[in-house]
Amino acid sequence: QRSSIRRNGHRLPRPPGTLPLAGNAIWFLQPRHKLLSWFSECERKVGFSTFEISVPSLPPGIVINDPANLEHLLKNNDIFIKGDFFKLRSRDLFGHGIINADGELWRIQRKAGLRFFSNSQLKTLVDDVLPVFIKDTQKNLDAAALASTQIDLQKTFLELTTRVMGKVAYDLDMTESMPFSKAFDFASGAIGDRFQNPFWKIKEFFFGNVLRKAVKEVKSFGASIVSAAIQRRTDRQGPTKVSLTGKQSILQANLIDALLDNITDHHIVADAAMNYLSAGRDTTAQSLTWTFYCLIHNPAAAHRVLSEVRERSHCANREPDLSFAAVQPTSSPFTMAVFNESLRLYPPVPIELKECTAETVFPDGTFLPRGTVVMWAPWAMGRSKSIWGDDADTFRPTRWLDISSQQLITKSAFEFPVFNGGPRACLGRKMAEVLAAYVIGSLLWDYEFTDPDGTSVDNLGTPAERRSQNSLTLPMEGGLPVRVRRRNLGQDYCTS
Ligand code: HEM
């Protein structure tokens, strides 16, 4: 079957270094950050040309970098599905949740979720929810500033996104220190390994106990979210309306109610709840971590973000304007450019794959038999010189701004696949964007962050590379320890 993958009647090229029997296994057995670099190196060598990879015991696979091929894949959601290859590896963690579902099971969870991401919900998130939680973040930063101690920004952001998601999605007080959080972290690393190690079943037969315990912890947390919601609905005789700041009914609907209204099987609701939680909190916390990492090493960009906040703010009371209107891309183009640029270099979902359910031909003429696994790496596409030009490795937010209007430009989801595209595009993109614009603006306004080792920008404005940890997403290995200093309530920036 492997030999039937063809382009113009010929076999596809193999990446340099492919071995006769082991194929490309050697790269897949390395830590994930090395695999990411390998994907990028291959893209640099072959450009948009689709190539075949092989790992013993795994189904035939290809890697695509051409945006036209990715468009074909993402738009043909019925042909390219998650499939058994993905599900077999992630079923115990994600169960029947949206991340792991195809067909009707996927459709129903997507429809239920849509209600939760309306514009009015996002406005409430920015205008009412975030101001409450960011105050606690600030208390922790103030304490670190006062004591002149380091603080881990990755942990800080994970705490923030856990609390936000807990409140708005489930009407629960969640924190990053709860056992499910650590368990999920561990499980995500171990499940990520399953996609790289063809011998994962043997490994887990001997050493899988910790993973099994972690999955059990995550599952029981999912079940507890559902039982708490059912209890609330019984007590209040109807869906809850989350109140946060003393105002009544500030959120029209929370996610768990939308899921309970649409799905009768409570086990599936529990899986869906955990899937939405992991899709939302980890990715967003990691994107903020990498963004602040880039900003710390590019002080000029941080300064321009501050100028943008100052321009639209009321300096009379020295408070930045971070209202829902102010955090839209039209009001905060440079802040969003910084966020996009960080996502381009550090995409929270760095590798993706789909399985082909029927014979199909890609726009570049590659013929795929049924069962082929197609991989693409937003990590490698984000660093592609064919897409981004010769300075693809450089952190340069202005590439996202139109030269004359200085407004944000858009890239298609197929060139910039950080949020996926087509019918399965990320549901939470807008939520992540407004949350990021709010957090970046608010924290930069009040604090100056520095690298505790004192290393700053290199000549090109490219931060010294930090590694990501093995995971399904992109946590920064070792967190992001920083030093922090209060800016004195925007005084530095409101002098007029
Ligand atoms: C910077 C932050 C984020 C990034 C980079 C991101 C990226 C992605 C990507 C790449 C996918 C496709 C994954 C796949 O192939 O299965 C996805 C799907 C999804 N994301 Fe996000 N995401 C982010 C934030 C969020 C947030 C805040 C939420 C919700 C609270 C969310 C909810 C979802 C859901 C529900 C899906 C599944 C969509 C489907 O399969 O139909 N995401 N996201």
From TrEMBL:
Organism name: Heterodermia speciosa
Alphabetical list of InterPro entries matching this protein: Cyt_P450, Cyt_P450_CS, Cyt_P450_E_grp-I, Cyt_P450_sf
Keyword Cell inner membrane attributed: no
Similarity section: Belongs to the cytochrome P450 family.
Protein name: Cytochrome P450
Listed PROSITE patterns: CYTOCHROME_P450
Gene3D superfamilies: Cytochrome P450 (1.10.630.10)
Organism superkingdom: Eukaryota
